[in-house]
Specification:
With about 150 residues, the protein is of the alpha+beta class. It has helices spanning about 10-25, 30-45, 95-110, 125-130; strands spanning about 1-5, 50-55, 60-70, 80-85, 115. The chain has a five-stranded mixed sheet with strand order 1-2-3-4-5, with helices on both faces.
């Protein structure tokens, strides 16, 4: 059985393992200082960044990060599911779905008008799960790097 709960200070080692795994999955890197900054932001109740972890047999096996954004398109906020990672050994057993559903519930309770996320077009395994929620938006994302670290 999968349990979803809020991230807490005791989770740092497991969180860091899965956060690093997520960054590696996307074949990128971030400075060590960013891992620490993200961790501190996730635990700061005054910062608009949140996290849940998934547990199977009381062992963390996945994470999700999300945030809320104001919009010029809607009177209520949008909820951005920014990062989702599940241990490859438990993929296909409902852990990713449970994490998305937990964010969905928070977004609904907060009054958000939209829950959305991005993924690489080549992330076929995850896209099978995502397609079970809704159709791909058809939007193309453009990025202008403003800092060599990004």
């Amino acid at each position: 059985m999968t349990t979803i709960r809020e991230l807490n200070e005791a989770d740092k080692t497991e969180w860091l393992f899965y956060w690093r795994s997520y960054i590696e999955f996307y074949k990128t890197s971030i400075p060590e200082s960013q891992y620490e900054l993200t961790w501190s932001r996730l635990l700061d109740s005054n910062f608009n960044l949140y996290a849940f972890v998934a547990e199977v047999d009381e062992k963390i096996c996945g994470l999700v990060h999300f945030t809320f954004q104001e919009s010029t398109w809607a009177p209520k906020s949008f909820c951005l599911l920014e990062d989702l990672f599940v241990d490859p050994n438990v993929r296909g057993h409902g852990v990713g779905r449970a994490l998305i559903d937990a964010v969905y519930e928070v977004a609904v309770k907060s009054g958000s008008s939209r829950l959305y996320w991005n993924t690489d077009a080549t992330n076929e395994i995850a896209r099978k799960l995502y397609d079970s929620y809704t159709s791909e938006s058809g939007k193309v994302q453009y990025r202008i790097p403003l800092n060599p670290v990004i």
